[in-house]
Specification:
1073 residues, alpha/beta, Rossmann fold, Helicase, Ruva Protein, domain 3, 6 domains, 23-stranded mixed β-sheet, 5-stranded parallel β-sheet, globular, LRR_dom_sf, repeat, ADP binding, AAA+ ATPase domain-containing protein
Length: 1073
């Protein structure tokens, strides 16, 4: 069911109708055959549209369904062949426009002349038509008066920010309900209580989807746990996790490098030493006690540290066999169920709206039977219906609540959430289940997989990729996918039960093989025509993972977690002619077979991170290829000239390669919308490299990364013209070769200066001719050698030239002496300036305001970063009373600006949340920032003497600021963290008074004595200073005044933990060893 039937039939019908109107169809002389097939499909479509949902609800497996799918797949393949052959005939009839072709590309037909081919393809189409009519006779007849249910309602994301909003919102913590809060409140104190055992085990037991993982996550992130356990790690106990992989996760999670170790005994030895501090290990979804008995029990028992292990499991016998302290997770009651549903669906609604929906909402919550997962996915369904009570009533009365379940452990709500999806989204969601459960799903790859499988509808005002992003956002909004909170560019299927449901629904088409063991979605030998093959943890060569007969029908082949695969068998590709998706990324493959060119239908080829050194010229025969990704192929030095034949290519990813040049033909690929790592010009004796004027025809680009602009020989005036959709633009010259510059002593100083000036003039000329379009949202300028920024960045109409610019990164513009008037950029939200070595002063020119101007400078800027500006001494932010500066700035980072003497006075008017200053060795004072609220982080500021008048500051971190002498005016600081490296501990004061490394600086004692706001104090220091803080030690009188204290030695081995309110005092620092 990976191909949802009603969607598949509609897709094939639309493609066939489109082909029937093309010249290629007429050239082949098969238009009558195609029209006959269309008539049959129209009748079948009407039946399928009525039958599809009924089949899902009744879980019937009708024989005609498989036959119809086979026919649809055949139509899909035949259309590719017809389009290619028709284009070939038209090209021959209208020279001169010869395209690269090969005799073997139409391998499904015998080599023959045009007339014979016309006869054969016509016969094939008629044969499909006959079989479809036979299938039609077996299909049920729709009841009289039935109507086509039509398409589903619109999705709830309608604006251009749908993707960012849905991902960021879904990654935020959600309300957990009072039952979970009570459980956390009961379990955490028990886990903190010291017992007789060195390692105590706790178990959260409950049914699937009942909220075990949610409870464990709340415990894992509880501040009391992170405070008491320096080592915390979470291990998802998937069925595919081997013993070696498990041990490596634990050891690396403790911060120890395992290297290339593959020996179990060596890893067990490392485990004891790795857990040298108090630890908390979560083993999520454990189904066997063997992990504890065979791998953890002895090493942890012999270790030096005490710890806690919390498991979640569906099987109480597992918890019992471990002698764990058991906590049962019960179903949520109606009140908590409705509260969770309300928070998920109506977080910003008025009390009147909530009251209007409460009665039906409670009934829906009751149908979820207390399962948090069921409530979350139903919340996704309801969000798509808005706040209409009639729509909620429809969900309540849905037939899916009473359908016979395929899998007994899956709640009915999950079936409803699937049934409610539009057909296109059903297919997209099912495709996600091809990923192994331990592998994150990368958004960039996933949306292009969908496009390659033709699962995405074209739209008049959106590219296929943009439409696919909408699909992705919808699945996240429906809680079927969840974004990774640490990386919003990847996601996971929300729960194992959803993965189990999806995999069940694609068992008739898909195979997953793990490590050459048949841990597949179904007994793969029974599948006569698998369409998708996912291989995980494979070794060495890739030879016949399934039978040759089965390979013939494959449409996608993906490898995961297989870094040792070095060879892909030539026969494998030759026996899989229908492949559309081929993902070999992160393997050790060194070469592609030449037979790659036989894959006429291939649309997606991913070789990221492989050891490929050369792309065979036969790749030019992949006339349907849409995505070619070569990111991180460090051994790749050249691309074949035949790449210009890939006229359907939409994405070419070349970053991180060793390419010397990119063939000119890339400029002829008019469908490209993503082009990264494009190298301009030629290297040494190479000729025919792509130049700037070769880009003028690429009008569909959304993203463009250009490198080696210094090698441009043609005018760039037209390079960025006619790019109305371009949003992301990276422009870069070659980085300066510092070693060569230092070692080059030839020539006089005058000659060297003249060479630098000439280089700057050439750079300025090239860049001035480029004019980025107004559609740009993200701009990166890197390694620019000019002395003045390009004209298009310095003109008075900067705001109108870049009306949509949100993010700007200026990196390594080493010769520019002044910054442009960037304050005029009205939409700019993020600005980073790095390695601007010639800038000494930042003044009013940066703001873009004048004395007479009333404009706001940087009206939307939220993040500003200044990094590695070696000569920057002065920075001023001055404005007239009528002017406003940086009204939205929340985060300011200043890093390694070693000569900066002071912060601009104008910052006192800015409501900063976060200020970080690292390596500002000339900065002596930080003062008068009355609106700085959340955090000040200071590190390695060697001249800093004074901090004063920060009346709203909540958190202060001081790391290696050895001369700091005065701290005052910090009335609201609640959290103070200090790091005193051994080299600075004895030099707290200018007088160099040595306290034998056991004295606090005077300002700290005064801060603690005078201020009542301080709630938490963290200190990292050497062992003598730590021991001075022990109960009865020289500094104990300071420590005992603070509600929470955590002190660790520099090496992390010794600690003191003190909590005044809980009367907790723990240490392992009393021993002299």
């Amino acid at each position: 069911m990976a191909a949802v039937l009603d969607s598949f039939v509609k897709r094939c019908t639309a493609a066939l109708e489109d082909f029937a109107g093309q010249e290629a169809c007429a050239a082949l002389g098969i238009r009558d055959n195609v029209r006959g097939l269309l008539a049959t499909l129209a009748r079948i479509d009407a039946i399928v549209a009525h039958e599809e949902q009924r089949r899902v609800l009744s879980s019937r497996a009708d024989t005609w369904v498989a036959q119809l799918k086979d026919a649809m797949y055949e139509i899909d393949d035949v259309l590719d062949v017809c389009a290619a052959e028709g284009a070939k005939i038209l090209a021959e009839d209208h020279p001169p426009a010869p395209k690269v072709r090969c005799a073997f590309m139409f391998s499904c037909f015998r080599s023959s002349g045009p007339q014979k081919f016309h006869h054969e393809i016509g016969f094939t189409i008629r044969d499909i038509d006959i079989r479809l009519r036979e299938i039609e006779d077996e299909m049920p007849t729709p009841p009289a008066g039935s109507v086509n249910p039509g398409s589903k309602r619109d999705w709830f994301f309608s604006d251009d920010n749908h993707f960012c909003r849905s991902c960021s919102d879904a990654a935020k913590p959600r309300a957990i309900g009072t039952q979970v809060q009570k459980s956390v409140g009961g379990l955490v104190p028990r886990m903190l209580r010291e017992g007789k055992k060195k390692v105590d085990l706790f178990a959260v037991v409950g049914a699937a989807g009942i909220g075990k993982t949610m409870l464990a996550r709340e415990i894992y992130t509880d501040e009391r746990m992170t405070e008491n356990f320096p080592i915390c790690m979470w291990v998802r106990m998937s069925k595919d996790l081997s013993e070696l992989a498990f041990l490596k996760k634990i050891i690396t999670g403790a911060g120890v490098n395992v290297g290339d170790t593959e020996n179990k005994e060596e890893l067990l030895g490392l485990l004891s030493s790795a857990l040298s501090k108090r630890f908390l290990i979560i083993l999520d979804d454990l189904d066997s006690p063997a992990i504890w008995d065979d791998l953890l029990k002895d090493p942890l028992g012999d270790g030096v540290a005490r710890g806690r292990i919390l498991i979640t499991t569906r099987d109480e016998e597992v918890a019992t066999s471990l002698n764990a302290i058991v906590h049962h997770v019960d179903k949520m009651d109606t009140e908590n169920s409705w509260a969770l549903l309300r928070e998920q669906v109506l977080p910003e609604c008025s009390s009147e709206e909530i009251e209007a929906l409460e009665d039906v909402g409670i009934k829906i919550a009751e149908k979820c039977e207390g399962h948090p997962l069921a409530i979350k996915v139903i919340a996704g369904v309801l969000r798509s219906r808005g706040t209409s009570k009639a729509e909620w009533e429809m969900v309540l009365k849905s037939d899916a609540w009473s359908m016979r379940p395929f899998l007994q452990e899956v709640p009915q709500a999950l079936y409803l959430s699937y049934v409610d999806l539009p057909s296109k989204l059903k297919e997209c969601f099912l495709h996600c289940s091809l990923y192994p459960e331990e592998c994150p799903i990368r958004r960039f790859d996933l949306v292009r997989h969908w496009i390659a499988e033709s699962l995405v509808d074209a739209s008049e005002n959106k590219s296929l990729e943009e439409s696919a992003e909408v699909y992705y956002a919808e699945l996240i909004g429906r809680n079927l996918l969840k974004p990774d909170p640490d990386n919003l560019d990847q996601c996971w299927i929300t729960h194992d039960l959803l993965r189990s449901l999806a995999r069940f629904l694609i068992t008739d088409e898909s195979i997953l093989i793990d490590g050459q063991q048949s841990a597949s979605m179904c007994p793969f030998s029974s599948l006569s025509k698998p369409r998708h093959l996912a291989l995980c943890n494979m070794e060495n060569s890739l030879e016949d993972p399934i039978s040759v007969k089965q390979q013939m029908s494959l449409r996608s082949l993906m490898l995961f977690n297989s870094p040792n695969v070095r060879v892909i068998d030539d026969l494998l590709l030759e026996s899989a002619p229908c492949l559309r998706v081929l993902d070999l990324s992160k393997t050790a493959i060194e070469a592609l077979p030449k037979s790659i060119g036989k894959l006429l239908h291939l649309r997606y080829l991913n070789l990221d991170g492989t050891q490929v050194r050369e792309i065979p010229s036969s790749v030019g025969f992949l006339v349907n290829l849409q995505t070619l990704s070569l990111q991180g192929c460090q051994g790749l030095q050249r691309l074949p000239w035949s790449i210009s034949a890939l006229q359907e290519l939409r994405c070419l990813h070349l970053e991180g390669t060793s390419l010397r040049y990119v063939p000119k033909g890339v400029g002829e690929l008019r469908h490209l919308n993503h082009l990264s790592g494009l190298i301009i010009g030629n290297d040494n004796n190479d000729r025919g490299g792509c130049d700037l004027d070769d880009l003028k025809a690429l009008s569909e680009l959304r993203l463009l990364h250009i490198e080696r602009l210094d090698r441009a020989t043609t005018s760039g005036a037209a390079a960025l013209a006619n790019k109305p959709f371009l949003k992301v633009l990276h422009l870069s010259e070659q980085a300066p070769l510092i070693e060569e510059e230092e070692g080059n002593q030839e020539g006089t100083e005058k000659e060297k200066h003249e060479a630098v000036v000439d280089s700057a003039k050439v750079s300025e000329k090239i860049w001035n001719e480029l004019t980025p379009p107004p559609s740009i949202e993200n701009l990166v300028i890197k390694n620019y050698k000019g002395r003045k920024f390009p004209n298009w960045m310095t003109g008075p109409k900067l705001s109108t030239s870049f009306p949509n610019l949100v993010s700007l990164d200026l990196d390594n513009c080493m010769s520019c002496t002044t910054l442009p008037a960037l304050g005029r950029l009205n939409q700019l939200q993020s600005l980073q300036i790095s390695n601007a070595d010639s800038i000494v002063t930042i003044g009013s020119e940066f703001l873009g305001t004048t004395v007479m101007s009333k404009a706001t400078s940087f009206p939307k800027l939220e993040v500003l970063k200044l990094k590695n500006m070696k000569k920057l001494e002065n920075w001023s932010l001055t404005a007239e009373e009528s002017q406003t500066l940086l009204p939205c700035l929340k985060s300011l980072h200043i890093q390694f600006c070693t000569k900066l003497k002071g912060l601009p006075e104008g910052l006192k008017h800015v409501a900063l949340s976060d200020l970080r200053i690292d390596g500002a060795h000339s900065l002596t004072e930080i003062k008068d920032l009355p609106k700085l609220s959340d955090e000040l982080h200071l590190k390695d500021n060697r001249a800093l003497l004074r901090i004063s008048n920060l009346p709203m500051l909540q958190s202060l971190t001081i790391d290696d600021c050895s001369k700091l002498k005065h701290v005052s005016g910090l009335d609201t600081v609640e959290h103070l963290r200090l790091v005193f490296p051994p080299s600075t501990e004895t030099f707290f004061f200018e007088e160099l008074v040595i306290f034998w490394s056991i004295a606090f600086p005077r300002w700290l004692e005064l801060l603690i004595h005078k201020r009542n706001a301080l709630r938490r104090f963290e200190l990292e220091c050497t062992l003598p200073l730590l021991r001075s803080c022990l109960d009865g030690g020289k500094n104990w009188h300071v420590v005992q005044q603070i509600p929470e204290v955590r002190i660790t030695s520099t090496d992390g081995k010794r600690y003191i933990r003190y909590n005044k309110g809980r009367r907790m005092y723990e240490t392992n620092a009393q021993s002299e060893e």
